[in-house]
Specification:
Layout (H helix, E strand, L loop, with lengths): L29 H10 L6 H11 L3 H5 L13 E5 L7 E5 L4
Antiparallel strand pairs: 1-2
């Protein structure tokens, strides 16, 4: 019979937390309800910020951390890159005239 283990071989194992993902899409009519509610707020910038967030998929903190230096005007679209929650650059595409 073998001798018992002197140490737990799993003690050095590092577990990686699974990514928490949400796969939620707006249902028909929800965007209109959200924008109507946003228009009732004191800050008139709320509706365009909501549309910007939906179009880019950016989080609130990413939008609030944007600076003009992150945006470069182009002929057909504006592009920029900002830091994200996971420290990866996030390219931002904004179609003109939206």
């Amino acid at each position: 019979m073998e001798a018992p283990l002197k140490e737990n071989p799993l003690d050095k194992l590092t577990l990686i937390a699974p990514a928490v993902r949400r796969d939620r899409r707006l249902q028909e009519g929800e965007l209109e309800l959200i924008i109507e509610d946003a228009k009732a707020r004191k800050n008139p910038l709320i509706p365009p910020i909501i549309l910007f967030a939906i179009e880019t998929g950016m989080r609130r903190s990413e939008i609030l951390n944007m600076q003009w230096r992150h945006i470069f005007a182009g002929v057909d679209a504006s592009t920029g890159e900002i830091g994200t929650q996971n420290d990866l650059g996030l390219p931002v595409m904004i179609a003109p005239g939206q």
